[in-house]
Amino acid sequence: MEKEKSMEFRPVRRQDRLLEEERARHLLEQGEYGVLSMHGANGYGYGIPLSYVAEAQHLYFHGAPEGFKLDSLRGDNRVSFCVVGATQVIPRQFTTAYESVLVFGRITVVTDDTERVHALRQLSAKYSPEYPQLAEKYIGVSLHRTTILRLDIEHLNGKAKRIALPMADPGYK
User: Fold this and answer.
1) pLDDT tens, 106-148?
2) Domains, the chain, ranges and CATH?
3) DSSP states of 104-149 as a string?
């Protein structure tokens, strides 16, 4: 399996920018949203920004029970998901400092209600931690009309470009 994975995923070209796995996972866990990219049902690439929650080797997403995203995933469930953390444009150096994490894997529609409720609770805890009782009510009312997707992570890498800024130079922003 490891040999198969190494053939699927190219190494990061700029090894000097590679984040340690622990930092990349932290960025993934703390990110507010990411862009899920896939092979669209119409033959074009398709990327859509989504909220998510990370748990061990999985990411969970929620959405409507029909639409272009689900049509596309039925055709090819191989996806990537990108989260960008802190960024800073540095005009005078014509560059940007950044940190990002990129995940590759396969998505499945979660059909087990126990796992579906678990995913919705995790999403609620991440995005609305101060409203656990309201979240339970919302989950109860919405579960039947909500699709839960689970991305099983097969490969993950993070990159960062760190730039030291001279503090005394007013040309740096």
Assistant:
1) 999 999 999 999 999 999 999 999 999 999 999 999 999 999 9
2) 2-161 (2.30.110.10)
3) EEEEEE---HHHHHHHHHHHHHHH-TT-HHHHHHHHHHHGGG-EEE
Residues 38, 72 contacting (CB under 8 angstroms): yes
How high is the pLDDT of residue 2? 44
In whole angstroms, give the CA distance from residue 121 to residue 159: 30
Can you tell me whether residue 87 is helix, strand or coil? strand
Report how far Cα 10 is from the mean position of its chain's Cα atoms: 19
Count of beta carbons in the 10 Å neighbourhood of residue 29: 14
Whole-angstrom CA distances from 105 to 36, 48, 146, 164 are 11, 16, 22, 34
